[in-house]
């Protein structure tokens, strides 16, 4: 039986095209997904990578071989696929490797209403199904949406092959987002947008059309080879061009989208990054103004300023593990109006609890354009502490290094340990850090927050001395 554990991740399917992912595998995944979700149809979208249209077609072939129809929305951002899944009430598949380099591709899956499909909500079942199918030989592959000429003969006579319909939902997606944020009275703003040659170059012009915005575009040309920089704004080197252009043209703000445009990073008028925690707090305050007393979800790596500010504005903060499946589950359980993560994923109840960086960006523009001051002043009240950002260490024994940190800090007076997700260590002086293992790589990820940069540096040096020993 073929082992696909290197391709099936915690939240999606991802690998190197031609080595780990090919049309036959994707066709089998499409068939397995159709068997998992049932119903009548699946909506499919894809990003600008050269391999994406062909893989999406193979997936559609697997789905239609199981008797379900496919609604193809063509080029799309991931949150546009979620819009399609929610508005059409259909399960969906988005072909993208997000911010990964050009040689990668993958699939993000959801059930109808943009409900997540992860390891604990269907992805493990799909993996097992596909491994059995591929391990059973070409005949089984043909019957599960395979590539052989016998496929149509093997398909059950009672199950007619589904059809493929093409629909353009970009304008509907933009209109829906614009209904959720009142931008009617904002002042004119100059904005630099770095699409990173990703899907933001496809969606931003339509979403921003008609707004009082002077947009200075950077790298809007769709190009899955990423000729200018990786479409991963979480890495500081990938927002250097945005920062320089904001300063050069005297813009009010800058936005950077990742490859599939579901995450949005913000820089202020000085070109300085605005932390995703500050954006989470800003959007939470705006959502709480619409629904006083509402619940706001935040993962355990967001700044402690987030739950503080939510509580100060009458909201109910709820802490959860890192990852979209956990955020969405908690939003469903609590009826939360909004959720945010340190990685710039923002989730909205009014967007089927799915993450959309574009909607978060519209909230930032509404807040900035609704008052006369600069973005740096607007966000200052949401930045209360110093933070390290994510620090990665390659280690052979993740569990052993975590145990060493637990033993060292757990023996100290006044230290509180929390193992909700990795190890969170709350220090007596108010500082804290979280150390957690990567789901996909031999890495330990460290995040630190403290009163000032010197305190952050002291914690960093002490923890890394143990982790990297």
From TrEMBL:
It holds the Pfam family PGM_PMM_IV. The keyword Metal-binding applies. The keyword Phosphoprotein applies. InterPro entries: A-D-PHexomutase_a/b/a-I, A-D-PHexomutase_a/b/a-I/II/III, A-D-PHexomutase_a/b/a-II, A-D-PHexomutase_a/b/a-III, A-D-PHexomutase_C, A-D-PHexomutase_C_sf, Alpha-D-phosphohexomutase_SF. Residues 390-464 form the Alpha-D-phosphohexomutase C-terminal domain. Keywords: Isomerase, Magnesium, Metal-binding, Phosphoprotein. GO terms for molecular function: intramolecular phosphotransferase activity; metal ion binding. GO terms for biological process: carbohydrate metabolic process. Its cofactor is Mg(2+). Residues 7-129, 172-271, 279-385 form the Alpha-D-phosphohexomutase alpha/beta/alpha domain. Belongs to the phosphohexose mutase family. PANTHER family: PHOSPHOMANNOMUTASE (PTHR43771). This is Phosphomannomutase. It comes from Actinokineospora auranticolor.
